[in-house]
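Tip: read the tokens left to right.
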């Protein structure tokens, strides 16, 4: 699926790798903005991996000294500088810039466990239809299991003979590895969603193109989110969940979800904001709308039923439902 055209980076600075060692088959894309300190921790952990991955940082127009820090402390890391904040689309710019067959995504507060990228590459090598895998996520210094792990592992979609792990229609953005060709074939993240629960639509788009999306717990990501509340996050998540429904699901389902949000808006300021922002973006969603193929819609409905309330619900540590199953 091809998403609407968007503006690419107009000011790009990339540094070649100084390490002569050949990188592995999995490259890493990090999208960041104004989080220099946590980004430095992430990059140190990634560069210490035994797989020696190529690391590309896509800077979403930071106004701090992120780029100067990278140039000074991590000259072996490539930097793609965007002139404006593109949100989740920064990851797509990074995928296009890399040439590795597989791409792992880290946020500026997450990294991969040693050996996990090797395990991911093995899954992709052995399963040509696999488009994206969702990792098991461990949160914070104590490595607490993210509740999303169990949610994904219990997916009622079950297994497929030509795929590893359990089939899902959602994942956590900072704990996913994609086949580069599949990601680009599906169009990457949708520009209408920016950030917040943007993963579900990409899972739908991959499945609609015939790619498998699975949860593989032998691939492990570490996530160390900032414990401080993220102002406005609940409203943005609800907006993007509803826009995802309008972009891909049947009209009756989308109308029912909209009425539910409208009812909540009478008493919840977050819901009021989400409804207003959804309606503002609805014309663009309708223009970009591409209903799911019947077999993917059946899978989405099965997940709706498993959730018990015909709605998305999940958790990803401190960030809210960013990687919901449906």
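Filled-in amino acids:
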């Amino acid at each position: 699926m091809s998403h609407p055209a968007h503006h690419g980076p107009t000011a790009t600075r990339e540094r070649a790798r100084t390490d002569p060692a050949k990188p592995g088959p999995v490259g890493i894309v990090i999208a960041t903005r104004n989080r220099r300190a946590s980004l430095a921790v992430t990059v140190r952990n990634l560069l210490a991996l035994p797989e020696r991955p190529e690391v590309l940082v896509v800077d979403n127009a930071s106004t701090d000294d992120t780029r100067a820090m990278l140039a000074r402390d991590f000259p072996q890391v490539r930097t793609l500088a965007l002139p404006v904040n593109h949100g989740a689309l920064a990851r797509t710019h990074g995928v296009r810039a890399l040439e590795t067959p597989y791409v792992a995504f880290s946020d500026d507060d997450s990294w991969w466990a040693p050996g996990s990228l090797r395990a991911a590459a093995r899954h992709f090598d052995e399963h040509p239809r696999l488009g994206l895998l969702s990792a098991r996520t461990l949160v914070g210094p104590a490595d607490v299991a993210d509740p999303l792990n169990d949610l994904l592992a219990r997916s009622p979609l079950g297994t497929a003979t030509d795929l590893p792990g359990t089939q899902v229609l959602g994942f956590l953005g900072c704990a996913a590895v994609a086949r580069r060709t599949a990601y680009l074939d599906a169009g990457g993240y949708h520009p209408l969603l920016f950030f917040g629960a943007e993963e579900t639509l990409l899972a739908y788009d991959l499945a609609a193109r015939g790619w498998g999306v699975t949860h593989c717990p032998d691939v492990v990501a570490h996530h160390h989110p900032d414990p401080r509340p993220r102002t406005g996050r609940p409203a943005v998540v609800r907006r993007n969940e509803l826009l995802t429904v309008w972009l891909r699901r049947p009209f009756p389902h989308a109308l029912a979800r909209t009425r539910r949000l409208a009812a909540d808006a009478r008493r919840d300021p977050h819901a009021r904001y989400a409804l207003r922002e959804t309606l503002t973006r609805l014309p663009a969603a309708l223009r970009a709308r591409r209903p799911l193929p019947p077999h993917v819609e059946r899978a989405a409905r099965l997940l709706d039923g498993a959730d018990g309330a015909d709605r998305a619900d999940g958790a990803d540590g401190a960030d809210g439902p960013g990687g919901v199953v449906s």
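Confidence is low (pLDDT under 50) at residues 4-20, 308-326. The first strand starts at residue 26 and ends at 32.
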